[in-house]
Amino acid sequence: MDSxxxxxxxxxxxxxxxxxxxxGPPLVAIKYxxxxxxxxxxxxxxxxxxxxxxxxxGATPPELWVAFGTAYSIALLLMLGGLVALAPTxxxxxxxxxxxxxxxxxxxxxxxPGDAVHSWTWxxxxxxxxxxxxxxxxxxxxxxxxxxxxxxxxxxLLLGITALRRRTLARWVAVxxxxxxxxxxxASVTVxxxxxxxxxxLFAVVMGLAxxxxxxxxxxxxxxxxxxxxxxxxxxxxxxxxxxxxxxxxRRLGSET
Length: 257
Prior knowledge:
Elements: H1 3-33, H2 45-55, H3 61-85, H4 87-90, H5 95-121, H6 136-166, H7 171-188, H8 201-215, H9 223-256
Helix pairs in contact: 1-2, 1-3, 1-8, 3-5, 5-6, 6-7, 7-8
């Protein structure tokens, strides 16, 4: 992938991470606006609920859930695209890290359609709270997205721990992947009790930061490996430039003769 495409991937991944992070709190507030109260309402929800009511006056909670849920699906799609595009770096050189990476990709590929379909269909058949109800399509989608969340959690742990031990990613990237699972558990029972938007808040952060680093033309590898990678890239450019120069000279000599 050339530098222009790499930078584009970085900016799109950054956009996905920022969207995922910003949309989490409104989706939590909207969930409580429907009457959902399995976990006690976080302290900040009344303020967010008042803002949503004033900004989107006339919109019902199901309508807000569909709109914000659709926007979150776009965020998931951008982050999934970034994961796939950055595969050569993130999957490392070991079987365990590669397994962890593909578990994350597979999990997010389940979360994306599962959460999107559930967002669009949960309120049908008279259901007023976004939990499994009488709509088999919504129930199947909910189960699919929860299976995907489990894969993302386990995969992030494997990827991060292996990258830390083998030094195949920059330390901050590996540490953040390790913390995705515990951060999701903490958020899901305290300040962001919704899934996937609340549970994936740290995943959105790490993807956004990774996208920003790549968009700036920097590497996600440890410093010493990043320097080696840069040297190889410069050497390749030099060889290709030397080859083009020789071919131009040969064509010029041929035309003169």
